[in-house]
Design goal:
Elements lengths: L3 E2 L5 E4 L6 H31 L6 H30 L3 E3 H34 L4 H4 L2 H17 L2 H8 L2 E2 L4 E2 L6 H7 L5 H34 L4 H29 L8 H24 L7
Parallel strand pairs: 2-5
Antiparallel strand pairs: 1-4, 2-3
Helix pairs in contact: 1-2, 1-10, 2-3, 2-10, 3-5, 3-6, 3-8, 3-9, 6-8, 8-9, 9-10
Length: 298
């Protein structure tokens, strides 16, 4: 089979969820309402934190960045998906595909680091409350957030360079609803072992280090909470980090199922399902998780 250099590949075709024309518009309506709900809920959090000076604390600044992140990675995928469903034109340019891969992986990496930074904030607040204003000053909080975003966007650069130099077979049909790493590797005629190794090494370094940092932070938090004498004090301390724990569990569960496996175990149906959980469920749940029990927001 003759291979084509990726530089000569002008576009890919996205499979989506169904080839049936009758289902395109119902799916469009469903995803449109979901996207609007994600934008509305996260923008509400975003605007509340900006407009209320009482919420200008490190915990809420991190939450503000989480809302920006949820809007960003959802907007990387859903607008293009909505356009394809509405026009029934499922073509995406090669450059658009590569950019979608890069930004999606960047936002995933950034969320790993941001959740770890939020765990550190809760650790300082509960374990070192007297030094909180010093350890989490506005300057240090800003430096931490800046390093999170820069590191998150640097992490997938090498992956993107490798993908841009792949050879693809005569078929440019992506069996997914957006350009993701796994279906692109499955589609390529090139040896993708370098990208898989790179994904495992960099992905493991990022995800495992962020997870271990979060885990150790919560070990200290739990130990400190258990040493609080009053039950009311323990419940109050735990309530300040319960929302973050919930977000961490949902996020790590979906991302692990989505990415922490070799290309040989790639399953289009499973990938679409777990991708939907990450792209739709997490940004829908995060505002609810952080707002429902939060007296400041109420």
């Amino acid at each position: 089979m003759e291979s084509k250099n990726v530089s000569n590949t002008n576009a890919f075709t996205i499979h989506g969820f169904s080839q049936s024309p009758d289902l395109q518009y119902p799916l469009f309506i469903i995803f449109l309402f979901v996207y609007l709900a994600i934008l509305l809920s996260n923008l509400t959090v975003f605007l509340c934190i900006i407009m209320d000076s009482h919420l200008h604390t490190p915990m809420y600044i991190f939450l503000w960045n989480l809302s920006v992140l949820d809007i960003s990675y959802t907007s990387t995928i859903l607008p293009k998906l909505l356009a394809m469903l509405f026009t029934q034109c499922k073509i995406i340019s090669f450059l658009g595909c590569i950019l979608q891969v890069y930004f999606f992986m960047s936002f995933v990496s950034t969320e790993f680091l941001l959740l770890a930074a939020m765990a550190y904030d809760r650790y300082v607040a509960i374990c070192h409350p007297l030094h909180y204003s010093l350890l989490m000053s506005a300057q240090r909080c800003g430096q931490l957030i800046l390093s999170v975003w820069i590191s998150g966007f640097l992490q997938p650069v090498l992956h993107t360079i490798f993908i841009a130099n792949l050879f693809f077979c005569s078929s440019h049909h992506i069996n997914h609803f957006f350009c993701d790493l796994s279906p692109l590797l499955k589609l390529s005629c090139s040896d993708t072992s370098n990208i898989e190794i790179c994904t495992y090494i960099l992905g493991t370094l990022l995800s495992v280090s962020a997870f271990l940092f979060t885990l150790v932070s919560y070990m200290f938090i739990i130990f400190t909470i258990l040493n609080i004498h009053s039950e009311a004090g323990r419940l109050k301390a735990f309530s300040t980090c319960s929302s973050h724990i919930t977000s961490v569990i949902i996020f790590y569960g979906t991302v692990t199922c989505l990415y922490m496996r070799p290309a040989s175990m790639y399953s289009p149906g499973q990938d679409k399902f777990f991708s939907l959980l990450y792209i739709i469920l997490i940004p829908l749940l995060n505002p609810l998780i952080y707002i429902m029990k939060n007296k400041d927001f109420k």
